[in-house]
Design brief:
- The chain is an alpha/beta fold.
- It has 8 helices and 12 strands.
- The longest helix has 21 residues, at about 270-290.
Length: about 290
């Protein structure tokens, strides 16, 4: 189907996911979306909203962040944004200078490799481009991973911009990239860190060759306590993982990305290549239902 476009990428579909049957509905324009959704289907109770783009979607990430920032600043005077490293953070460079009051934004980190600290470097660069004061960039400190994790846990549990009314800290928004293996942050499939889920931990220290050695990372509990999470998964190399994560076809700990379910809203940003295998799965499910009827 053809779709409208107001930027470099055309959003092809908006998908809502849970664990039961697929229900197709006509296309409609969704509230704040930059692109035109030409298809939307719900799978019973919404757990994840999945947006499919025909191309890059950095501008759309910026739109979501800006809207959340403005709303939080208007409501409580601050906005807590937790970021990873990599291309998801790089997308913020396209944020318009007047998108929100950057002085009210506090940046936190989902993970960090020790002792190289690449996420800190990327975060400081993003903050500079956004106009966020360096004092509002809360990077992991230096030291032994366990001590760093303990210190950062205390920071998250006490910072005024973060909601700490629940069991673990709840940031306003969390951005996450994904790996083809389904890892998010430094939570890798079947690792001790992902298996520590639901234990109430805040920040974990670990060592894994997949993270190039020592690292610290927020727990899945903290990821799921975030008010809103954007999960980015683009490219054909992630197609099998996306299908597994969205369909729920994975074991207890072998697809961390599929376990991410924010407190209020979980947005998956995908493209035609990364959603292709899931589309095939959905088509098979539809055919099976028609045969049963």
């Amino acid at each position: 189907a053809a779709s409208g476009s107001s930027g470099p990428a055309s959003m092809l579909a908006l998908v809502s996911c849970s664990a039961t049957a697929l229900v197709l509905s006509p296309a409609r324009r969704a509230g704040n979306l930059q692109m035109l959704a030409v298809e939307e289907f719900a799978i019973s109770k919404e757990i994840k909203s999945v947006r499919v783009f025909d191309g890059e979607y950095a501008d759309d990430i910026c739109d979501e962040v800006a809207a959340a920032a403005r709303a939080c600043i208007a409501e409580k005077g601050s906005f807590s944004l937790c970021i990873p490293g990599g291309s998801v953070v790089a997308a913020l460079a396209q944020m318009p200078a007047d998108a929100f009051d950057a002085s009210k934004v506090h940046l936190f980190f989902a993970n960090e490799k020790i002792p190289s600290y690449p996420c800190k470097e990327g975060g400081l660069d993003a903050a500079k481009k956004l106009g966020v004061p360096e004092a509002n960039v809360h990077a992991f400190g230096e030291g032994e991973p366990a001590a760093v994790a303990e210190s950062y846990s205390s920071l998250l549990a006490s910072h005024a911009s973060i909601d700490n009314s629940g069991a673990v800290p709840s940031v306003d928004m969390l951005l996450l990239g994904t790996g083809p293996d389904g890892h998010v942050g430094c939570l890798f499939p079947d690792s001790a860190e992902i298996k520590a889920s639901r234990a109430g931990k805040v920040v974990l220290a670990g060592n894994d060759a997949r993270a190039d050695g020592d690292f610290v990372a927020i727990s899945l509990d903290v990821m799921n306590a975030a008010k809103c999470v954007i999960v980015s998964a683009a490219g054909a190399g992630r197609a099998e993982m996306v299908a597994k994560a969205l369909a729920g076809n994975f074991g207890p700990f072998d697809c961390p990305a599929g376990l991410v379910e924010a407190e209020e809203e979980t947005l998956w940003f995908t493209d035609k290549e990364s959603i292709a295998v899931f589309d095939e799965f959905a088509d098979i499910e539809d055919e099976d239902e028609l045969e049963e009827e």
